[in-house]
Design goal:
about 425 residues, alpha+beta, 7-stranded mixed sheet, 5-stranded mixed β-barrel
Length: about 425
């Protein structure tokens, strides 16, 4: 199946629209979201005032020089705006192209390595198929068409050709389990995180950020329409930073495979038990990775065990870390059962000896003997420092405790509040 990806950099309509957007983006309300470009625009405006002044002050050489500087700065802004606009246009064109050329290609039944064409009446649980994902529905449901029958395959991305097995079949619903991606989607790109694909924490790191925003907007629109509502979605506002943006993470102790060595990180994709140890998570501050590795090494050397969810035995449960984006202050909360004892002084000294850019202002120990796999407190002890830190949104100060609810993307929250302030005037 050929896809017409007509997204050349110099496609006329994209270039003309990008040139138009280069001037639209001169709006200070737009540029203020980019501190660097906002500073350049302020400098350009200042040079314009200086140039006008010099034009009326009998200093011809000064006027020419100032005019030249003004023109250079102005062209710099326009070029940067054009580059940003053309990138956005190319991303949108690629997504539009994929949607327009999507074809509901019948899936193929694979039997003993042989491919057979089937219709929906022949579907049986356990059958293995190959098919093309025609769209991705919220939150991560790849949709494949088999002779007009909708099949849901989780974690499959639109445009991919995948191999899947039927694992649920009801009168009004068929679900498949993803076995293999045979062909990548045209909109895919290499993920920045080495844990992507195994770790269950992130779903769309194999898409550019512009593609992620486009997919999110479309999914919101589909949900609104599905629920019988009707109103326009103005925009999906992106985060100012796309790596290291989370100010809180809950990591879990466990093992990567049955009876394997102690692990500390996130659950494996589609697994309730297996844990992926993270040493380079890209959505948290690097300090979190350093502290996670140090804490994991410490408990491995101690021979401590994790809390087994079936046997209800073991000591280590969760590690919760929170960080102030504005100050770098870090709060660490170790969650365990009461089935062993923690050498509190040694544990604190180990953490404080780590070389990090931020500052650990509090180390806590939460005891939790509840059987449910959730972070909750039967008792919380402060082993070092304080049980809170302060985070700032604009000129507002928020006191954050271990169990406080707070937007996990501080800078992203400021973007949202910017829009609210703009709406209310």
């Amino acid at each position: 199946m050929k896809t017409n990806n007509n997204t050349s950099l110099f496609q006329r309509d994209q270039v003309m629209e990008s040139l138009k957007q280069s001037f639209v983006k001169l709006n200070p309300k737009t540029l203020i979201k980019n501190p660097v470009m906002f500073t350049v625009e302020v400098s350009t405006f200042f040079m314009l005032l200086v140039t006008i002044y010099s034009a009326f002050s009998n200093t011809q050489g000064s006027f020419v020089y100032n005019l030249l500087v003004f023109v250079i700065l102005f062209i710099t802004i326009l070029f940067a705006n054009f580059a940003e606009a053309i990138a956005e246009a190319r991303g949108k064109a690629q997504a539009d192209s994929l949607r327009k050329t999507r074809e509901e290609t019948p899936a193929k039944l694979v039997v003993d390595g042989q491919v057979k064409w089937v219709n929906s009446s022949q579907l049986k649980k356990g059958d293995i198929f190959e098919g093309k994902v025609i769209r991705t529905e919220f939150p991560n449901k790849g949709i494949i068409d088999i002779e007009g029958q909708k099949v849901i395959v989780k974690n499959a991305l639109e445009g991919q050709v995948v191999r899947f097995s039927i694992n649920k079949k009801k009168r009004d619903k068929i679900e498949g389990r993803l076995l293999e991606v045979i062909e990548p989607s045209p909109i895919e790109q290499p993920a920045a995180c080495k844990h992507f694909g195994i770790c269950g924490g992130c779903r769309y790191q194999n898409l550019s950020y512009e593609q992620q925003l486009d997919l999110k907007k479309r999914q919101v629109e589909e949900l609104i329409e599905k629920n019988g509502l009707s109103f326009d979605i103005e925009n999906i506002y992106g985060s100012p930073i796309t790596e290291g943006y989370r100010n809180k993470m809950e990591f879990t102790f466990g093992d990567e495979e049955k009876d394997g060595p102690l692990a500390l990180g996130m659950h494996k994709k589609n697994s309730f038990y297996d844990i992926v140890t993270l040493d380079d998570c890209r959505i948290v501050d690097p300090d979190f990775n350093v502290l996670l590795q140090a804490i994991l090494k410490y408990f491995k050397e101690k021979g401590e065990t994790y809390f087994h969810k079936i046997r209800h035995e073991g000591f280590l449960r969760h590690l919760v870390m929170r960080r102030s984006v504005k100050t770098g202050d870090i709060l660490i909360n170790l969650v365990t059962t009461t089935q062993s004892r923690l050498d509190e002084s040694e544990f604190v000294n180990m953490i404080l000896s780590q070389k990090i850019d931020g500052k650990v202002v509090g180390i806590l120990h939460t005891l939790n003997d509840n059987l449910a796999d959730v972070v909750q407190s039967d008792e919380t002890k402060t082993l070092y420092g304080q049980d809170y830190f302060y985070e700032y949104l604009y000129n507002m100060r928020f006191k954050i405790s271990p169990f406080s609810f707070f937007q996990t993307n501080t800078l992203g929250a400021e973007v949202l509040y910017d829009q609210v302030r703009e709406y209310v005037g």
